[in-house]
Amino acid sequence: MLFTEVRGLPVLAPTRAGPLGTVTSLAADAASGTVSHVRFRGGRLRGETVLPWDAVRSIGPGALRVESAYAVPGADPPCHDLLDRRVLTDAGTEHGTVLDVAFDTETGRLLAVLTTRGEVPVDRLLGLGDHALVVRAG
Amino acid sequence: MNELMAARSISTRPVVTLGGDAVAHVKDTVCDSDTSRITGFTLSGRGLLSGPLKEGLPWSAVWALGHDAVMIRDRRGLVSAAAMTAQQQTLRARVLGARVLTEAGDEVGTVLDVVVEGGTGGWVVGFRVAASRRFVPGRTRHRRRVYVPRGESLTVAGRSLVLPGAALRHVADDLPGFTALVGGGPGPWKGSLP
After folding, report:
1. A74 lies in some domain
2. Chain-centre distance of CA B51, in angstroms?
3. Interface predicted TM-score of the whole assembly (ipTM), two decimals
4. Is B21 on the interface with A (CB under 8 A)?
């Protein structure tokens, strides 16, 4: 599945009748190559809630189901959005920006990063920070 | 051969860790006493109005000097800027504006910029020089800027750089031409000029 496909899906909890909100973004850990957190928003004026990936039961079709409506408010981990992020090689040259990321909905493992300058294999990701996604120069 | 770049273009380039975080911007380049290698960078903060940082980046902590960023492994490589510039001065203070002379005493011009090699070596490969009228004849209004290779033996005498005459047999008009001229390979100056 793609990150852009998950964006906007309703978040459903087993104990609640209505949706908790809609997914705004997925956060990834570049070093381990996995999805780390899901961010969703309860409403236009509500703040964002961050759920760890372990709290997600299943993704799709048409919804993201979580184990419980629990979220730890205030405990915002340093996770950065991958989409539209600048890509830098470890040699210090830019390599476009991230268009989309494919990932496995079962395990949360990233499968491929699609950039404006072609696909980058996940084993070449080095780190994701506030400035850029750093990849090993191929 | 790694990409050649003008030292002044390195200023304002971000310093990025392999984790993807930008920690500073490059303020100026520091090189060793005979202008053969970069020894480090002074830094300024990331904001528009933030001034110079107390930390400097020694060359040993640089992962790679690239076209769009200076890559470092992590923040721990930064050292005190005062300790780094105690022995050496920045390029701006020392080399820019210096006179370039040949061994015979002929004036070549004044240094506008220093050309360094990117990647992991950090070698100084040449200078961009505002050529004097005798070195490059032509009308004064169109005074030529030429790229001059550093050569193997360069002597620094005060504010003057003395180049061996052989290094000046071939000069280039632009950076791509200069890359083709010195394209011998990385590392310290190799081989003779064509």
Report:
1. no
2. 23
3. 0.83
4. yes
